[in-house]
Design goal:
Blueprint: E1 4-9, H1 16-29, E2 35-40, H2 46-49, E3 57-61, H3 78-83, E4 86-91, H4 94-99, H5 104-116, E5 120-125, H6 129-133, H7 137-149, H8 154-157, E6 161-164, H9 178-195, H10 199-202, E7 205-208, H11 216-220, E8 227-230, H12 237-247
Parallel strand pairs: 1-2, 1-8, 2-3, 3-4, 4-5, 5-6, 6-7, 7-8
The protein binds 1,3-dihydroxyacetonephosphate (13P).
1,3-dihydroxyacetonephosphate binds near residues 208, 209, 229, 230 and 232.
Length: about 250
């Protein structure tokens, strides 16, 4: 029912030449039809990468404006992303929450704006190490989900993807254990179900944070983990394709 999804978040990396080469390698190495695959280059690289991806790999953006258009200097609207070939957009990545002070409600408004143009928002949530140590993991994530959901209707919720990315695991080489990921994913699924009956069964929940070829299969084997949001390892086509293969067959 939930097809596995693996997304590469290229963050603020690459040049026009290097992202073209990476896109070509991803297209030729990620051929597994049982997994949905997407890559999210930097905004300026979207139109460079879009024509290289073909039908097998989807394009995603790393952020979207809350506003549909007008005097918002520096912003990029959902309609602009769609016109450039995007199908997905990340919203609420912890780097943006921390660096750009994005609130959970703003993340919800961005998700709504994305959905209004036909994009699938990938809504990122996750706790810091201090919050985990203080046993606040669930409370923090539920607050992030509450804020996001307050901007949406139940019908819209089911069209979103959620990504659980513990902040302490991002770029640290210290992934959550499969058990830790599984526990949080199960809690998120129950929470989604409380917003809209039936949503817990259909919404894909990805894990992100130091996913590598060596730990991907174990994490993806957790019943509530439907794939991954991959940072560093997505910049290496061989690693990324190994992670995509690890997701094969993990969907329900
Ligand atoms: P890493 O895979 O580099 O830990 O990054 C995860 C991430 O932030 C993806 O959005």
């Amino acid at each position: 029912m939930r097809k596995a999804l693996v997304i590469g978040n290229w963050k603020q990396n690459g040049s026009i030449a290097s992202v073209k080469a990476l896109a070509d390698s991803v297209v030729s190495s990620c051929l597994d039809e049982s997994v949905d695959v997407a890559v999210c280059p930097a905004a300026l690289h979207l139109p460079v990468v879009a024509p290289l991806l073909g039908d097998a790999i989807a394009l995603g953006a790393q952020d979207v404006s809350e506003y549909s258009g007008g005097a918002y200097t520096g912003q990029i609207s959902a309609a602009m992303l769609v016109e450039t070939g995007c199908q997905y957009v990340l919203v609420g990545h912890s780097e943006r929450r921390a660096l750009c002070a994005e609130s959970s409600v703003a993340v919800g408004v961005k998700a709504k704006s994305a959905l209004g143009s036909g994009l699938t928002p990938v809504v990122c949530v996750g706790e810091t190490l201090d919050e985990r140590k203080a046993n606040q993991t669930e409370a923090v994530i539920f607050e992030q989900l509450d804020g996001f959901f307050s901007a949406l209707g139940s019908d819209e919720l089911t069209q979103c993807v959620i990504a659980y990315e513990p902040v302490w695991a991002i770029g640290s080489g210290l992934s959550a254990s499969a058990e830790q990921a599984g526990e949080v994913h199960a809690a998120i699924r129950t929470k989604l179900e409380s917003y809209a009956a039936g949503s817990g069964a259909v919404i894909r929940i990805l894990y992100g944070g130091s996913v590598k070829p060596g730990n991907a299969a174990e994490i993806f084997a957790q019943p509530d983990v439907d794939g991954g949001l991959i940072g560093g390892a997505a910049l290496d086509a061989a690693d990324f394709s190994a992670i995509v293969s690890a997701a094969s067959g993990s969907g329900e």
